[in-house]
Amino acid sequence: EVLKLYDMGGIYSQLPPRTTPREMKAHIDALKYLKIRPDDVFLFTYPKSGTHWLWEIVGMLLSGRSEYNKNVKESQMLECQDLETLESLPSPRLLNTHMLPDRLPDNFLSSGCEVINILRNPKDVAVSLFHHIRDFENSVYNGLWSDFLPLFLGEQSKKCNTWEKILQKQTSTPVLNIWYEDLHENPVSEIQRVAEFLQVDYTIEDIANIADKCSFQNLYTTEMEIRHGVKARTRFGTPLMFRKGVVGDWKNYFTVAQNERFNRIYREQMNGSQLSFGRDF
Ligand code: A3P
Question: Is 250 a pocket residue for ligand 1 (Cβ < 6 Å)?
Fold first, then answer.
């Protein structure tokens, strides 16, 4: 099957079920009118970088309880909810999106909201996205990794550093960047950074508890046991958003030639960027 991806606010992805491309475009246009509140916390992430992980962590920090969020991430995701639903959410909202900044609500930059971004080695992102697209339970795509990688390097790779460029140019909005690899290695100190950025009260025990509750194994199990049927699943019945959760899985997929090509395109795209996905790259 040919892979069909649609413009979801600058990022190319599958459409949510029951939405046509025309409806999606109208929805994204309408989001310009959403009023962002000063106490909103915004997760701005590239797909497959660990957004659901961060969602659980920040949800626990904001609520002051190390309990799993009763709501799924998509319930506060700009691409997935209509304006009225987003407007009716109580503060502080934990909004999240993969859209590019120029599609965001008009008052986003002046709102004073807090922005957290999780970044991940784009090679692991590519492998994760390949599985997401191919293994999604409604997917009609059964392409090979070697078919998928050129697609990723075409449309998707161009988006890698857009965030940084646009945010630095246009706003003094504080952005906290968290690296997936650091969160993986030192969850307690990285979660502490998030807590300090959000200025929430915490003890080290609270943070250690959140790190444990949000470990890959615990999130996977929770997803299977508690939310099964609510959240997205793969065609194998496993949670779509919690696949493997490791650093460096790309080494099991990339050939030497694919790696060289990726490095070349990455260098071109990231030219002039302050960000570097250095470790294990
Ligand atoms: P893999 O497909 O490499 O396993 P997103 O939430 O942005 O869609 O990102 C999904 C990726 O984050 C998946 O990567 C998923 O397994 C990984 N992930 C989710 N929770 C994690 C956790 N607690 N620890 C490590 N990785 C996690």
Answer: no
